[in-house]
Amino acid sequence: MKWLKRLGIALLALPVTLIAIFVLYEIFGMCINHITTGRQTNALQLNLENEISDIEIISVNSETGNTSGTGNHVDCMSSVIFSTQMQEAEIKDCMSKYYVFDEWSCYVNQTDDGYYMIYINTSAPFADNIEGH
Question: What is the dihedral of CA 15, 17, 22, 28, to 10 degrees?
Fold first, then answer.
């Protein structure tokens, strides 16, 4: 009779345990996605500083989540606004060894203020995380 009581308690505890495991997995995925976005942004800033000698960084932005709004996925978005005497084509040439410019997920453009913005958007390691819904 004791083993039947233990089995009943285990069966009742199983759904709570599975839900807790799922929630912990989602939290773990969110942490990894944010760490990945931070690393991507830091690498972008470092690559810019290494390749462009007269760079002055104005702002650095990053975002983790569904940045495009076109589905259930998580993106890692990084953008850096900077000033330099280089032209847009020269910036693309010197940064092309790090990134593939496709005018959608990675591009450089000039802002209305005369600064340049480089934008990178990649898929997160846990792309199907709750953060993208």
Answer: 170
